[in-house]
Amino acid sequence: MESTVYRRGSDGKIVGTPEAKPVIEIPAPPVFAVTTYRAGDIGQTQAQPKIVADTPQPEVFAAPVSASPVVAAPLPASVETKPAQQQVKPSPKLPAVNLPKFSFGKSKSRFPRPVRYIRNIVLAYLGFYVVLGFHAAASLDKMPASSNVALADTAGTNWLLVGSDSREGLTKAERKELHTGKDEGSQRTDTIMVIHIDDSGKPTLVSLPRDSYITIPAHIALDGSSVEDRKNKINTAYGKGGAPLLVETVERNTGLHIDHYMEVGFKGIRDITDAVGGVNMCVPADVTDENSGLNLLAGCQELDGKNALAYVRMRYADPKGDLGRIERQQQFLSSVMKKVATPAVLLNPISMWKLVDAGTGSVNVGDGDSVMDISSLARAMRALSNGNGTLTTVPVSETDANTAAGSSVIWDDAAARELFVSLGAN
After folding, report:
1. Is 123-424 a CATH 3.40.630.190 domain?
2. Are 296 and 182 in contact (CB under 8 A)?
3. Where are the domains of the chain?
4. pLDDT tens digits along 252-302
5. Where are the transmembrane segments (predicted)?
6. pTM confidence score
7. How far apart are CA 124 and CA 202, in angstroms?
8. Residue of 130, 243, 118, 131 whose CA lies nearest to 192
9. I need a labelling partner for 326 at 20 to 30 A (CA). Which of 3, 332, 355, 410 fits?
């Protein structure tokens, strides 16, 4: 193709000289329009559409033109000019595609800051209690406690809760401080309670006086001798045949099948009380008891482990004797469970860890009992402490009967049978 170069001559006139310029053109199929420009009659360019290829055209390479002053002048009508580079119509836009967004680094949570804070606290507590549960399960002291003679199952769930006079775990100095006396080797049970949980979950606690004069079943004594059925105080059963004989004795005289067993010694009462930070007890009158070392003024007050142990053990300074001690033992259990249920203990990891350590270090359970079983017992005892259950004592006809075993408590057979039959049916 040709192009025209305009120069000013020596006479001052502008002269156009045709000059060839090499152009590389690639033909393309006509698809869309571009615009060409032609010189009009009045010296202005006019645009006309022209169909060219649908693919982008390669750039046209032109030979360089010598740089010289050029003055614009009207173009002859016969001269056609084209732009150095053809304009291309933009391709049609593709539909928008929503690509997945990938976040790198710290991402923003969908929860507000206060919600995240509460969530993290809840997760931390859940994790702590899971660890605490495993710790308790691994630390439980278990002992054989199944009855020697199987009794037919009865309705509901029955726990036998025993407080023994065991000094196990106490040093000589501690025994002196707590006024527990020396360990005589043969243990007896100071506290015997049956906790019945009916099928609806409602608990009933029945205390059995330690001096109850009942039938001890035939058994093989710890020394290997054979013993026939005989009447004796219920607290002697443990010393003669351990937990299995005590369980069998309770089953024989109540008609209730004992499903679970728990035993707490002197050390356990002291340590559990101190672990929860003391318990609140209401003392009806001033009391001084040399046997237990108790010296308290009347009124409601916070008792530490040492005084709480003396308070639940005291018997001779109480005009009600063994029945008065039962009332104080029930009051103590309720106070402990109320204290455990407070946020100061329940939501305090240090206090809960101390409580579990105190319990597992001085509490024995039956060899078939688990942490889940103990949790069920704890819920029942908490319900009792809140008044959502029944606290009672086996009906008695005499509290100071003269028997071959000494001063004893005699049950009211008819009333006692009615109570236990009612429990066994629910």
Report:
1. yes
2. no
3. 2-81, 123-424
4. 999 999 999 999 989 999 999 999 999 999 999 999 998 888 999 999 999
5. 117-138
6. 0.69
7. 32
8. 243
9. 355
